[in-house]
Amino acid sequence: xRHDHIISAKQLSRADIEEVLDRxxxxxxxxxxxxDRHGNALLGLLFFEPSTRTKMSFTAAVKRLGGDVVDxxxxxxxxxxxxESLADTVRVVEGYADALVLRHPSEGSAQxxxxxxxxxxxxxxxxxxxxxxxxxxxxxxxxxxxxxxxLTIGIMGDLKYGRTVHSLAHALTTVDADQHFxxxxxxxxxxxxxxxxxxxxxxxxxxxxLEPVLPELDVLYVTRIQAERFPDESEYRAVAGEYQIDAxxxxxxxxxxxxxxxxxxxDEIAHDIDETDHAHYxxxxxxxxxxxxxxxxxVLGGDR
Amino acid sequence: MSDRELRVSKxxxxxxxxxxxxxxxxNVLAILGIDxxxxxxxxxxxxxxxxxxxxxxxxxxxxxxxxxxxxxxxSLIAPAATINIVREFDVVEKHxxxxxxxxxxxxxxxxxxxxxxEDEPVESRFDVLDDGIRCSYCDTIVRDGIAEQIDVA
Lengths: 304, 153
Ligand SMILES: [Zn+2]
Known about the structure:
Chain A is an alpha/beta fold. In chain A, 35% of the residues lie in helices and 14% in strands. In chain B, 33% of the residues are buried.
């Protein structure tokens, strides 16, 4: 893989994706082998909004490779609070680390920041924009559980604002999946995402109900519908209720259906699914560490 | 005012932007950053009869040549425009605008959450699509109303 920065899932070819996932699978199977692979590596963490789990996952990943983190800390205590630009912050901090991980509320912030630094920069979420490491761990779970061949996947919930969905849809197009998008009309895919998917020759269909498409699916990826997307509470309750699943819903599904969710969930997936073979969402969350290890290994020069 | 009359009011040094899509002259001035407070001598012809376009706008600016970034954005709102550079009353260069693959600066991103709208040392940048433009940072697509994104700050 020849990318200095990991900004967007859109930049990754199928070969890139397979390379990351293959490396992640090796690391997952035998983490001891890699325990000292990047013994001196320092990973700079720049989290401008709280995301404890993503941060923990990156920290775990670099420590499992023998490296360590230097952390900008909370925004409240840093020079950013004093009005420093992101461009200045990354130019200072790149001197402290071998690679940077950035999470920032502004869309396009990772792309911009990457233009100011020489060390590899990994986007850990830029507002409603891209979140490529989440996408890669999603793909890892999909490949492990269902495989990419003849894959039919349903993606349900908030497709308008859900950035994980947008990144994932691009990547699924790269692996030629049939994609079904299930959402209320008001939360359908945004125009720029639909435009790109068409440009890329994606096979996509949009639905307002899960029922007709459920029996065809190998994977059902559920996302949360947030109350603040609706003008009032009652409308939210009425709409969100249509996109919740439980064990009874899944009686119409294939026995080997994989159910995924980026977590945290609220009530989109009932707890009675947790104990079934359909539930892959915790496994999905755990794969964040080996996938981020693989990505770090590749950007830090794991081929040497 | 006819096209002929406009041509009579020659400028000494500067730029004549001709064959502007009718109705876009004021947007062209905005691209050039010209408003009531700027010092340039400017003449504007609007809805002038044109053989090629039916009717067109024309803008003449004394003492000002266009940067490539300005020409790029101009091409998006006035694809048939011709640019004449005038020195000592003679047209020394004449070219048509070409649709670029990207435009830098001049326009601002309509997405209020886009990093380019913040106080960062970065210019806006848009990829030019067949039927619009797309922010290179946040991916927002602008199809209609590109002229409304001209940065008048
Ligand atoms: Zn933008």
